[in-house]
């Protein structure tokens, strides 16, 4: 599907909607990715993956009960020649994966790197659900005007267009007098619930568009390194009546001859915009004193709705759950100091919220979280 769930030691978040944040802090090149939408668009041309088991509330703030991961993509190289690499993969279910990168130095101080991937396979379900169709591209620029300063800018964009899986799971009989569910002998046979999804106007289409920009500037003062890290993330999901079998429609006769509830569907357009700015000053000495001071600011705007229909062909909505918007603005000052006289070390760290505000559709009571007093808006 269009959302990936990250779990560390069994701790994860089931809800992947834009208004729900994760239990595992996810970062791309050091910048926070607060939602689990479009994460697969980053998983190519990766240099390394950092993983910290949770809880990590002291070092990474809220929403890191399970831990934190940092996906680090490859930087452009100030090499003397143009270089590149490509990879082609094929497999069952018509799997086709293409990825490539090209590194081009421009002079002695500037280089660019272009990377992309295309990933597709046929549906795992008999009806065609569970396929994949993803394209992603990333452009990186590295500028090193002096030996002391380095500027790294990364722009990325991904588009995912797929037929969602999940037509056989979570099918619960809720019609009066019906207490059983129909489970097909073949777990991939979902035609009883979704026999018409092969149409180009299928109610199970979904398109997810993600894009982002990250800029990091590092300056070396000999005694300390000053970093300025800016990040912007955007996601826009436009599903075409995606299925949700938690709400059932009229009873239908299954291939086994028994009567079971039919499937319903939802229309759930959702989006989010987020910005973050972090500027730490970190000492470069190894021992005995190591210290870090910094400021952090974060802004996030989520919006979306869910309109439920009682059957796959119904045009009259049965239920609507709206989250018109949620705005989060927060800032913090942070610091850490470590003293290591020999083999023994002692560390002290602190984070102080500077400001936090949330705009909601209607006045609500504030719900303070552990580290930055974020307010939450209820479902309207």
Write the layout of secondary structure elements.
Blueprint: E1 24-28, E2 31-32, E3 46-53, H1 57-60, E4 67-73, E5 83-91, E6 95-106, E7 110-121, E8 132-143, E9 149-163, E10 205-220, E11 224-240, E12 251-253, E13 259-261, E14 265-267, E15 270-283, E16 289-309, E17 319-339, E18 346-359
Parallel strand pairs: 1-4
Antiparallel strand pairs: 1-2, 3-4, 5-6, 6-7, 7-8, 8-9, 9-10, 10-11, 11-15, 12-13, 14-16, 15-16, 16-17, 17-18
Q: What is the H-and-E element order?
A: EEEHEEEEEEEEEEEEEEE
End-to-end distance, in Å?
Answer: 27 Å
Mean of the pLDDT scores? 77
The unreliable regions are 166-175, 195-203, 242-248, 358-380
Radius of gyration: 24 Å
The helix/strand class is mainly beta
Q: What's the tally of helices? A: 1
Descriptive report:
The protein is mostly beta strands. Helix content is 1%, strand content 51%. The chain has one helix and 18 strands. The strands form three sheets. Strands 5, 6, 7, 8, 9, 10, 11, 14, 15, 16, 17 and 18 form a twelve-stranded antiparallel sheet that branches. Strands 2-1-4-3 form a four-stranded mixed sheet, with no helix packed on it. Strand 15 and strand 16 form a beta hairpin. The chain is globular and about 80 Å long. The two termini are 27 Å apart.
What's this entry about, in short?
The protein is 1% helix and 51% strand.
């Amino acid at each position: 599907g269009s959302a990936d769930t990250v779990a560390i030691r069994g701790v994860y978040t089931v809800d992947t909607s834009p208004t729900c944040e994760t239990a595992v802090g996810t970062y791309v090149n050091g910048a926070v990715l607060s939602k689990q939408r479009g994460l697969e668009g980053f998983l190519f041309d990766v240099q390394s993956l950092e993983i910290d088991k949770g809880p990590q509330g002291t070092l990474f703030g809220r929403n890191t009960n399970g831990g934190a991961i940092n996906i680090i993509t490859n930087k452009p190289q100030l090499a003397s020649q143009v270089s590149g690499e490509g990879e082609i993969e094929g497999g069952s279910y018509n799997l086709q994966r293409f990825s490539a990168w090209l590194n081009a130095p421009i002079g002695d101080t500037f280089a660019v790197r272009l990377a992309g991937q295309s990933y597709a396979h046929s549906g795992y379900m008999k009806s065609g659900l569970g396929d994949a169709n993803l394209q992603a591209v990333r452009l990186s620029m590295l500028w090193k005007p002096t030996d002391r300063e380095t500027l790294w800018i990364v722009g990325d964009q991904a588009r995912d267009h797929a037929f969602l899986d999940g037509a056989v799971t979570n099918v619960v009989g809720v019609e009066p007098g019906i207490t059983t569910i129909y489970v097909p002998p073949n777990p991939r046979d979902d035609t009883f619930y979704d026999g018409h999804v092969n149409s180009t106007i299928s109610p199970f289409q979904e398109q997810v568009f993600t894009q982002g920009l990250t800029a990091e500037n590092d300056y070396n003062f000999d005694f300390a390194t000053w970093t300025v890290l800016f990040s912007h993330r955007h996601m826009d999901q436009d599903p075409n009546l995606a299925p949700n079998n938690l709400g059932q429609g009229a009873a239908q006769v299954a291939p086994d001859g028994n009567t079971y509830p039919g499937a319903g569907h939802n229309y759930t357009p959702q989006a989010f915009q987020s910005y973050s700015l972090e500027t730490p000053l970190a000492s470069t000495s190894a021992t005995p004193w190591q210290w870090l001071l910094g400021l952090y600011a974060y802004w996030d705007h989520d919006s979306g709705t869910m309109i439920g229909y009682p059957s796959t062909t119904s045009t009259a909505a049965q239920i609507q759950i709206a989250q018109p918007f949620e705005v989060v603005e927060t800032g913090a000052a942070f610091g850490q100091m470590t003293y290591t006289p020999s083999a023994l070390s002692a560390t002290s760290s602190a984070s102080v919220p500077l400001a936090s505000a949330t705009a909601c559709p209607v006045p609500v009571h504030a719900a303070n979280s552990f580290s930055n007093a974020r307010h939450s808006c209820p479902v309207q």
